[in-house]
Specification:
Blueprint (H helix, E strand, L loop, with lengths): L2 E6 L26 E4 L37 H13 L1 H7 L6 E10 L5 E9 L2 E4 L3 E5 L5 E4 L16 H14 L12 E5 L6 E11 L5 E9 L5 E6 L2 E3 L10 E6 L5 E2 L1 E2 L5 E5 L7 E2 L1 E2 L12 H23 L12 E4 L12 E4 L4 E4 L12 H15 L9 H20 L9 E2 L13 E2 L28 H4 L1 H12 L2 E5 L2 E5 L12 H15 L6 H16 L4 H11 L7 E2 L2 E3 L7 E2 L4 E4 L2 E3 L6 E5 L5 E3 L5 E4 L5 E10 L5 E11 L5 E4 L3 E3 L4 E8 L10 E8 L6 E6 L5 E5 L9 E8 L8 E9 L10 E9 L1
Parallel strand pairs: 2-7, 5-8, 16-19, 19-21, 28-35
Antiparallel strand pairs: 1-13, 3-4, 4-5, 4-6, 6-7, 8-9, 9-10, 10-11, 12-20, 13-14, 14-18, 15-16, 16-17, 20-21, 22-23, 24-25, 26-27, 27-30, 29-33, 31-34, 32-33, 34-35, 36-44, 37-44, 38-43, 39-42, 39-44, 40-41, 40-43
Amino acid sequence: MTSPSNRTASPQGSHRPRRRLAGTVVITAAALAFSALPASAGAAPTADASGGRNTGALPQIKATARPGAGTVHLSPAQRRRLLDQAAGAASDTARALRLGPTEKLIPTDVIQDADGTVHTRYERTYAGLPVIGGDLVVHQRRGAPTVTYASEKKLALATTTPKVSAATAKKGALSRAEEKGTRKAGTPTAPRQVVWMMGAGPKLAWETVVTGVQQDGSPSERHVVTDATSDAVLNNAEHVKSAEGNGLYSGPVTIGSTRQDDGTYALIDPERGGHRTLDASVKSSGVLFIDSDDVWGDGTAANPQTAAVDAAYGARTTWDFYRDRFGRNGIADDGRGSYSRVHYQSVQGVNLANANWQDGCFCMSYGDGADGQHPVTSLDIAAHEMAHGVTSATAGLGNFGESPALNEAISDMMAAAVEFYADNPNDVPDYLMAELDDLHGDGKPIRYMDRPSKAGVSAVGYPPRDYWTPQLKWEEAHMAAGVGDHFFYLLAEGSGQKTINGVDYDSPTYDGLPVAGIGLTDAAAVVYRALTVYMTSTTDYPGARAATLRAAADLYGPDSDASEAVANAWAGVNVGIRFVNHIAVEPLPTEPVAVGQPVSRQITAYSSRPGTLTYSAKTLPRGLSIDRTTGLITGTPDKAGDYGSVIVITDAAGNTRSLSFTWSALESGGHFFVNPTRYLIPENGVVESPLVVRGRPGNAPGDLKVTVDLDHMFSNAMVIDLIAPDGTVLTVKPWGPWVLTPELHETYTVDASAVPAVGTWKLRVTDGTPGIFDLDAGHLQRWSLTF
């Protein structure tokens, strides 16, 4: 017979001095009408930079929970029953969502709110093939439910027969994994035929898993996805989630052990799913730690048990945090414990300098640092790795675009939350990552959440990012995670200078305006709900903004100060728009207008208070006016010049926001006609911009000049045509060549002598880039005709 035992590890030996602190809901889908929430909904970041100056601290906002906002703790049996019911109704749910006849849904997770709302997460298959990036969440509320999609693109393939053989895909995956740094790669798994829905989406593809060793000694499990038609690489991602660290220990702590039949004790925590702590210095798979007196470790790195104490404590504390704060029953919410391997070395005998989480083994592995003398087992490292497991079991944030960075950032957020929850005097809670280690040899943490760039230039050649940019999705995940870390600090503590638990912080914002925090507990609650209910495998930073706003609305109300604080924290890192006087305004469409050219410009604003908005304007370009109720500016300018315009927006509570700017009206007519309105060029799509020509009798000239200004990563891949007033299509620019060209500013000569000059001309721009790339959209900035 075994019996549980909670014992205290022996006191630490010498270590670096530290600061001290004195019912069940079933979805009947066929009868329901669904509305969709895009996974990446949210305003594109467009705030003007202010040099990132420091901002003053504001009083913290008190977030008041809404009635019924909490989640219901589900026992493993209750959770299983809900999943079984969802599986039984999956075909009806698919029909209600208007999925194709060959698409099927597989329920993978379920959450129930106190008000009876059920959130069911599904994976998708197409003709029996797994769909990567096809996951979705059905939110069954009172009345019509909503759906969060990882991708809203239509799922249809011309064929499911690959042109590239599995053998070719397997051979190519091995070389491509080695190119990305996987060493000592073994024989790849047999390629799995899948449908790839990421990026420009859907494509028939092969997914091949190549295992080996990463450069730092971590296990490598690289998933290589290749197009089954062209063999082009669609994704090449490492699935072992690693964090840098070189941690010290947590001091005298209580850990869970189990008494064996022979009277010895095993490091198995019976109260937390049977979590086991293993010694991987013996063999990479690990050997269970056994002790005769149930007193573990002596606080020194020389004793192998000391690292085991920290790992067991980290697992125990993180389990308790998720249970006490969110009612979660273990990493996968199924009561199952993971296991930890300390002193890890790879099968090939390579020392692990870091720590990592692996989905495949449902386990954490902790190395002994670069010198083999400093186990990487501090509490924030342990919590960070286990948060990867929670993310994998819920949103499943993928390895495409910004999702890997968001995955790393959420692990940092939850690591900070676990530290504050533990409140261990030997590891004083803070907003620093791995602050107990000295990995860089400079005594500094590896990440600073208040200002991530303080960490300095990393091994990948640049510092963590403080603010979002469109290029972020191409950057290394740990560096791009700085944006999420910074958001979380702002949401929890606000901007400006402050001292917390003896640590000085000074957090700036992108637009230089202050942000008020809501406290770490409520900030973590918002992020956790967003992760488990609204995020999907493809969520990026704008999508995370949308998810956290929905989460805050659920928890505290859509008109609450807490919801407004979430939006402003994101604006502080250049994601989305900011509320000022409780009013937020999308970037104003204030590019120049032209005399004689019809104008339609929409002012879009929101209030965090209930009621409608009204609009007024002063000194618009002559000939333009604004609709008081819709904010639409229309008319035809009749006089050129620069106008000092002011837009005033007023909410139902009487709050106002004024925006002043100079609005130019360009001369247009005679020999020169211009349309300076900016148009989005949709990815792999088409856009047309009109231009009205008056006072030019007869036909256009044979040397009509067409001047075009546009931006796109591959602007020379844009195909440009001129459509005459009678519908005749004239070629302006053909496709190519295929080289990197971020901007195009050219004047072309077109023979338009066969078409009339007067009337509405259109410039048509077609995005000719291949669909295998996840490229940023381009813009037609302006164009003109010179007769």
